[in-house]
Amino acid sequence: MQPIAGGPAGGILQALLLIVFLVALVHAVSGRPILGWDLAADVPHWVGILAVCVIYGAVAQQLRLARYHGQVGFYHPGHALVALMGSVVWLLILLGVGWYVVHHWPEVQDCLQRVLQALQGALDNRSANSLST
User: Fold this and answer.
1) Where are the domains positioned within the chain?
2) Could you tell me the mean pLDDT of each successive run of 10 residues in the chain, 133 residues long?
């Protein structure tokens, strides 16, 4: 059994996060705006669904790490603080990357397109080499 930090407040926060995720997922699947963002104009449908799942997974995992901060035999009050600080740092990194992507979308889109073209070129060369030998 692991000690639970946050008590009922942590559980309520995790339940609220799950509800927000399910609502956002339903909106993403149906193509409606997600929490005020109309993704249909900017990104493909499947990318919106994948983004909702990845964002939920990242945030939920950090909350889970903050709540279950150590094994019973290894518990020390400092573990909860370290888990909380790790969660805060990770969420700040996610927010920073998200801010950059929102404000520099054409550059990010160009970068992703170049990476995709390079990957396709590498796979095409690899399959052509395997067919010729």
Assistant:
1) 7-104
2) 60 87 87 74 79 86 70 60 79 85 87 88 74 58
